[in-house]
Amino acid sequence: MSGEKKLWPGDIQEPHPEVFDIRAMPPQPKEKKAGQLPENMIRQFFEEGYVIVDEFFTQEELDACRVAIARQVDDLANLLYRAGKIKDLYTHYGLFERLTKIEAEFPGANIILHKQGRLPQAFRDIWAHPRMLNVVEQIIGPNIAGHPVWNLRTKTPDNEATTVPWHQDSAYLDNRSYEVMQVTAWIPLLDANRENGCMEVAARGHLKGKVATHQCCWRDTWYVMLDEKEMEKTLDVDLKKDTVLCPVPYGGMLLINNMIPHRSLNNLSNDIRWSLDLRWQRPDKSVGFYDLKEGVLMRTKDNPNLKINWEDFEQVERHIAAKKQVGKKELLEDAGQFDTTIQGPWMKKWEMVHQNRHTATLSDEKLTWHKN
Ligand SMILES: O=C(O)CCC(=O)C(=O)O
Ligand SMILES: [Fe+2]
Fold it and tell me: Is 153 in the pocket of ligand 1 (CB under 6 A)?
């Protein structure tokens, strides 16, 4: 016995470093497929827990995403306008300003957009892009599913709700995710840098193969948070030395795993720092999303060009399912299309040290997610 007490549902005894460190690196192909990265970059991913790819997508591929986002902002503006929530449609503002104007008149507008989780064709195209999957294959092998937790980040200037504190992604997922490598591509829709709030990672914090004790919730948000001291103690990082700023140019991406501690900085610029985070893992392991939503199969060894069933994947709206699982039953009816709060089972995985308007509607029921 280690003498340590199991305190919160998210705490575990059994670490799995071999799932995340260099031992998990698949044999690299002798002949590279389109888009595949040099072996030293893949090694860095396993050894350091992250790698920045400066150039990957074409201008057309990402411009299509920008167009799709502009359309979503336009739809949101019209929705709010018709409901009398805003007095102006702000049509003269471009993609990098319009939502800020809307947000100023209707605080929380960015949260509504964030949680809509609409997956336009342009997002699907980069998520399942053959070149992208070729890189994912270098990390997890030829059987690949898209993970149900993906996000469009609506990072308007100086906005607490989109400044994500230190965390490991598995802290948001159920404990089955502690046993499977999940790869994230973090893809900015403009040059992302310190000023506009790019990401920072704590290099090598994944090597212990475990999730440190998180807490909930960060200020007026739905985010879990990882205390710096706890991170240094449990994950053996020295933040002074190991914190790495990860600027990513438009066209590039940052690759991370589900055990590496990371955060995003405040956006001190005047532009919205739009980004997408997309995830993949092997399909034969649980995605660890509390049995709320499954992944979407994208490629198998025997069928590398399979037809992706997006329709089935889109059947479940993740944020609604999450709210239903943990919200007070009697309040669920009230949660209409202008609800700017987010709830989810991750809030019940960790000590609740700070309550706010997001946690106010949580039920008292304990978290249960295992089917068996
Ligand atoms: O984009 C952000 O601000 C945070 C992203 C993040 O935490 C992630 O992609 O896992
Ligand atoms: Fe994250």
Answer: yes
